[in-house]
Amino acid sequence: QVQLVDSGGGLVQAGGSLRLSCAASGRTFSSYAMGWFRQAPGKEREFVATISWSAGSTYYADSVKGRFTISRNNAKNTVDLQMSSLKPEDTAVYYCAAGPGVVPTPLSHPWEYDYWGQGTQVTVSS
């Protein structure tokens, strides 16, 4: 089992940057694919990015491609989301998630993930 704790959210102006971090407990962290999702008020939870268990592959939503970068450190049991060129429409609660590591395609749907962090608020002002 994996427990996830999200951090790093805050208030930033449009065009600015933030780095989110997710700390995981459990000896099997390196066997999980990790993802970031976000949920704005009144909207469904939305896929942002995912990274394979080995960090060998990443996959991004079109809306964040080229602006966000997902990375992981299996020695430290962490996964980060570096966000740049932030826009007001990026405002949401951001969640990290852990899912099965050995899958043929990137995990881009919430139901594909088994464990979730508590979320961290990101607010981008115009």
Task: Give an overview in words.
The chain has strands at 3-7, 10-13, 18-25, 32-39, 46-51, 58-60, 68-73, 78-83, 92-100, 115-116, 120-125. The chain is mainly beta and 126 residues long. Strands 2, 4, 5, 6, 9, 10 and 11 form a seven-stranded mixed beta sheet that branches. The protein has a four-stranded antiparallel beta sheet with strand order 1-3-8-7, with no helix packed on it. The model has no long low-confidence stretch (mean pLDDT 94). A hairpin with a 6-residue loop joins β5 (46-51) and β6 (58-60).
Primary descriptors:
single chain, 126 residues, mainly beta, 7-stranded mixed sheet, 11 strands, 0% helix, 50% strand
Number of strand elements: 11
Please state the structural category.
mainly beta
- State which percent range the strand residues make up: over 45%
Distance N terminus to C terminus?
40 Å
Helix coverage percent = under 10%
Shape assignment: globular
Helix run count: 0
Given as residue ranges, the uncertain stretches (5+ residues, pLDDT < 50) are none
Order of helices and strands: EEEEEEEEEEE
Radius of gyration: 13 Å
Instruction: Report mean pLDDT, rounded to a whole number.
Output: 94
Largest sheet: 7 strands, mixed
Overview in brief:
The chain is mainly beta. The protein contains no helices and 11 strands.
List the topology elements:
Blueprint: E1 3-7, E2 10-13, E3 18-25, E4 32-39, E5 46-51, E6 58-60, E7 68-73, E8 78-83, E9 92-100, E10 115-116, E11 120-125
Parallel strand pairs: 2-11
Antiparallel strand pairs: 1-3, 3-8, 4-5, 4-9, 5-6, 7-8, 9-10, 9-11
